Hints:
It is a single chain. By secondary structure, the chain is mainly α. It has one helix spanning 18-43. The longest helix is centred in the middle third of the chain and has 26 residues, at 18-43. The radius of gyration is 24 Å and the shape is elongated. The chain starts with 17 loop residues before the first helix and ends in a 7-residue tail after the last helix.
Amino acid sequence: xxETVVRRTRRAARARTSDTTAARATDRANAAAAxxxxxxxxxxxxxxxx
Length: 50
C-alpha cells in the first residue's frame, strides 16, 4: 500500500481592522489605569499601612 502524505496549510491570519486595533488599545489603556489605581491604593497608606 502506498502511503499518502497529507499536507496541512496554515490558516490565513485575520486581518485587523482599525476598530479592533482601537478597541484593543482602549482595553490596554483601561487595564493600565486600573493597575495604577490598585498600586496607588496600596501605596498611600503611610505609617498605618492601609
